[in-house]
Structure formats: structure tokens, C-alpha cells
């Protein structure tokens, strides 16, 4: 089993929407805090991924995917901050690996690929926030990210109830 990591253009992003819907709904139904509430079906994610493909097209988002056995099983994004005073910054978002493909090192590969692409596009600082107490919170320090702190009651878990968010940053490139 060899995984392939790719940075998608807009056309490939649109072709990937069905697999990306499956990955997002799997994460939400598994209890990950990803901006949506349960119940959540793959079709509920179509509009979201169409909008992301549009942002890939405009150059506002870098979208990476992991492919295993001809199926997409993982994804991550970097939003390229557009404010005139932040041309060097990006927002890491939606790191997700399908529950059937976890523990294979795919998130590490996805993060390396998207960080390299963000650096290639001139970004030197990435920031992210992730649900406090989640699996993801435990892994970002392993990828060289610096923990900043916690904002309590920032969002809702997909099944309901407040969850805090933990902020991280990482310097990349030169
Ligand atoms: C978090 C997530 C992306 C990890 O993906 P994964 O492909 O299984 O992770 P990997 O196999 O690449 O593991 C990466 C590292 O984290 C470690 N790790 C993996 N899961 C872990 C966990 N639950 N707790 C602590 N460490 C963990 C691995 O041992 C590995 O360490 P190493 O590379 O230093 O040996 C995946 O569990 C997921 O999609 N979770 C739900 C979505 C989510 O919460 N996303 C965050 C949105 S901000």
C-alpha cells in the first residue's frame, strides 16, 4: 500500500468532491470538531467542497489530498491570508484522515506537503486552531508546531456541548 500525496488544482479538486465529502462526514460523525454539527451525511458537504474548489481556483487556498488504493482518504488545506499586512501568513485548516486509513503516517505526509507548498508560495508563518482534547491537538507538536494557549468554549462539539480551541503556530521556509 503506497500513499500518494498531491496538491490539487481546481479541476482535480472538483473531481475529488465525492471522496472529500466521504472524508468530511466520516470525521464529523466520528466526533471531530470541523465546523459542522451531527447528523451529517456526505451530501451535506457538497456545497462546502464546491466553495473550496472555487477558492483553489482563485488561489486563496492550497488543498492537499492523500490517495490510497485509488481512493482519497485524507486532506488538509492552507488558507493564504489576503490582508495587505499579512502576505507572509497562512491558516492551516481541516487536517482529516478517514478513520479507515489512520495510523499509517498520512497526516504527517499531508502536513509536510502543504507546508512545503505554502513556503513555495512565499509564506513563512502558519497558524491553526484545533479542538482542545482532540486527537489532533496531541499530534501537532510532533510536527514541530508551537502551542500558544486555549480559548475555552470556543465552538460546539458536533454532538453538542462546548469545546475549547487550542491555538498553534509554526514558522516555515527560510
Ligand atoms: C488527527 C488525524 C488527522 C491523524 O491522522 P493519522 O494519519 O492517523 O496520523 P499519523 O498516522 O500521520 O500520525 C502522526 C503522528 O501522530 C501520532 N498520533 C496519531 N494519532 C494520535 C493520537 N490519537 N494521539 C497521539 N498521537 C497520535 C502518531 O504516532 C504519529 O507520530 P510520529 O509520526 O511522530 O510517529 C486523524 O486522527 C483525524 O483525521 N482525526 C479527526 C479529524 C480531526 O480532528 N482533525 C483536526 C482538525 S484541526
Q: How does this model look, in words?
A:
- The structure is a single chain.
- This protein is α+β, with helices and mostly antiparallel strands and 174 residues long.
- It has one domain (3-126): Gcn5-related N-acetyltransferase (GNAT) (Aminopeptidase), CATH 3.40.630.30.
- The chain contains 5 helices and 7 strands.
- The chain has a 7-stranded mixed β-sheet with strand order 1-2-3-4-5-7-6, sandwiched between helices.
- Strand 4, helix 4 (106-120) and strand 5 form a beta-alpha-beta unit.
- The structure holds coenzyme A.
Quick description:
With 174 residues, the chain is of the alpha+beta class. Helix content is 30%, strand content 34%. Helix 4 links the parallel strand 4 (89-97) and strand 5 (125-131).
Quickly list its features.
binds coenzyme A; alpha+beta; 30% helix; Aminopeptidase; seven-stranded mixed sheet; 174 residues
